[in-house]
Amino acid sequence: MRNFKSGIFSLTLLIAAIFSFGSSADLKAQNAVIHLDSTAQIIRGFGGANIVGWRPDLNEEDIQKVFGTEEGQLGLSILRIRIPPNKDQWSDNLPTAQKAYQMGVKVIASPWSPPASMKTNDDLVGGRLKKDSYADYASFLRQFEDYMENNGVPLYAISIQNEPDIEVSYESCDWNAEEMTSFLRDHGDSLSTKVIAPESFQFRREISDAILSDSAAASNVDIIGGHIYGGGLNRYFLPSEKGKEIWMTEYLKNQGATDEWEQLEDEVIWDETVEMLDTIQRSMIYDWNAYIWWYLKRYYSFLGDGEQGTEDGVLLKRGYAFSHFSRFVKPGFHRVYTRLSYAPGYSSVSLTAYTDSSKAIIIAVNGENSPKEVNFSIAGGAITSLRQHVTSLTENMVQLENVEITNNSFTLTLPAKS
Known about the structure:
This protein is an alpha/beta fold.
């Protein structure tokens, strides 16, 4: 039995006024069990991207807000950067990456395109990597690794290609399964850090299955990474069978980046934020190890950029919601198994829980349109005290009264869309 002196219950609530303890006569309760003595996947972290050159770099205050772990900060533990095809631009990454690394943040890097001279179309948009440039491209990536390490930012992992399986009109490069498998088989061992592949735009498995089915290529890959644009958020067993981690390395929701974003009602943006939270919960339930958002600083992201009615550098609702994961579930925690009993009307209620040697973190999301009562039971251990934090349409990471625990059980009502 594992005994924990403290725990954290984390909710994001639509309307704070309808949050309540105890039972409600018109609700049928769902039962939830948290198995503290179980062990699922290790958590590597939660993060976001800072793509210097495409967006302005973060300033010192921004860096403290997104990577700091104190009250009013988001506690992100992963920073994703771009590998510019022009080496003269590599230094653009250093100011934020150096400070983030010094704060204990993992830094990962993805290329959108190899240098144009290495491609079939001699262009940074589209085309393919020339077969006779495979060794040169591997050397290019290794040089970037060395450059970052020599400047105080040893990379945690490096990707081979961002979204190789979709044709777009911006910086990109197209790869098929045979090409990436061949590259990794023959040149992946020249890289010095962990390798991420293939970063499919929709976590499509054609390329990753091919890599994992080739023993030589698979031996040169550490992380199966992918994005979940329009699909791909499903259980994926093959990576774990091959001893690989699964990372979600890019996603965003922004109502189609409409020019009328600032005209949207707060409730509309909040509903979309709850949908974001659901993708995080599902990623964790599916045994994925990390979740990385797109731009850290953008009007639809974690920090306002001064556009579409946001204030530059001010934490946004979406950031506070994300921080229920990033601030409390730190690298090295393990997810533990939870069980939600079947109850009609509860299909969009999700629950995840995490532990380290002394803490338990419980995160619940209610995607239903009505309040849902849940009876929680702790199995395989004990929690002596449980702090509670809430982010709602009107509150940002507010600490509420501690949850009263009796005989390792407690009951809460999760408000609609919370």
